[in-house]
Design a protein that fits this description.
Number of helices: 10
Order of helices and strands: EHHEHEEEHEEHEEHEEHEHEHEH
Strand content: 25-35%
Number of strands: 14
Distance between the termini: 25 Å
Helix content: 25-40%
CATH class of the largest domain: Alpha Beta
Structural class: alpha/beta
CATH topology of the largest domain: Rossmann fold
Number of domains: 2
Length: 276
């Protein structure tokens, strides 16, 4: 059987971060043909549910770049890769050394997702805390309230480009960690960084999917650096034309832009799903 794995932002979703009507109809046609599909995204489950509901995403799904794998049938996480205490300490020390405020994301009892932070020392950190707190399904607390049994899924931060680059260098000697970073917003001089366990990748998630479903061929779609491990694990990998240069270079082929239903149009041709 074929298994299709989608990244969300910049790939399956349009510029409004939605599944367009054309793409929604394409997913319906895939489902009617019995072609299996799922997602591997940097988003959290609670930030994806509203987007995926009603589009027949019934198979296991990878969230936070593979840190967590959600099984809709169980209504629970089936796999996870949390940070160890020593890894967390290394990350926090590196961020504080560069005067960047660390935000620690946790999974707690009852599958509660929370975010913890030390005292907010600047406007950038305050804005980021407000942003996290505004997201549905997430509560933000001072790090002094972090429960001792909380599992930390990842650490994120926002800061000046030079500071974020320095953080990435400082944790570079930690074999258990992987970091992704990029421009937070054009012309702001700020970069974001997200750090989690090295075994938590979209590539490892694809291997789990293959084992669970007995998929003989995996076809994946992605646009950014966190998709490269998934590309390496897949049999075919396609990048929309808006993808990062490294992703374009690694792709089996480059297809249409994500805001022009590029993935859906490719799928209709690839699997002979019919025209609009």
């Amino acid at each position: 059987m074929d298994l299709i794995v989608f990244d969300l932002d910049g790939t399956l979703l349009n510029a409004s971060s939605q599944i367009s009507p054309y793409t929604a109809e394409t997913l319906t046609r895939l489902s009617q043909r019995g072609i299996a599909y799922t997602v591997a995204t940097g988003r959290a489950l609670h930030a994806s549910r509203g987007l995926l509901d009603g589009h027949r995403f019934r198979l296991s799904q990878a969230y936070k770049n593979g840190v967590l794998i959600w099984d809709p049938g169980l209504g629970d996480y089936s796999h996870h890769n949390f940070l160890t205490l020593s890894e967390i300490q290394h990350v926090v020390e590196a961020m504080l050394h560069e005067q960047v405020t660390p935000f620690l994301f946790t999974l707690e009892s009852g599958n509660q997702h929370r975010v913890y932070h030390p005292p907010l020392g600047d406007e950038v950190a305050e804005r980021l805390a407000e942003n996290f707190d505004s997201r549905p399904g997430v509560d933000v607390f001072p790090v002094a309230q972090l429960p001792p049994d909380a599992e930390i899924t990842n650490a994120s931060a926002l800061g000046a480009v030079r500071s974020i680059e320095a953080v990435q260098q400082l944790i570079g000697d930690e074999p258990g960690l992987v970091a992704y970073s990029g421009t937070a917003q054009e012309d702001t001089g700020l970069n974001w960084i997200d750090i989690h366990h090295v075994d938590a990748t979209k590539g490892t998630a694809v291997e789990v999917f293959k084992d669970e479903l007995g998929a003989s061929r995996v076809v994946c779609f992605g646009d950014s650096h966190n998709d490269l491990s998934m590309f390496a694990a897949a049999d075919e990998c396609y990048a929309p034309s808006n993808a990062k240069p490294e992703v374009l270079a690694a792709a089996t082929a480059v297809i249409g832009h994500h805001d022009e239903d590029g993935i859906a149009r490719f799928l209709r041709e690839r699997f002979e799903l019919g025209e609009a």
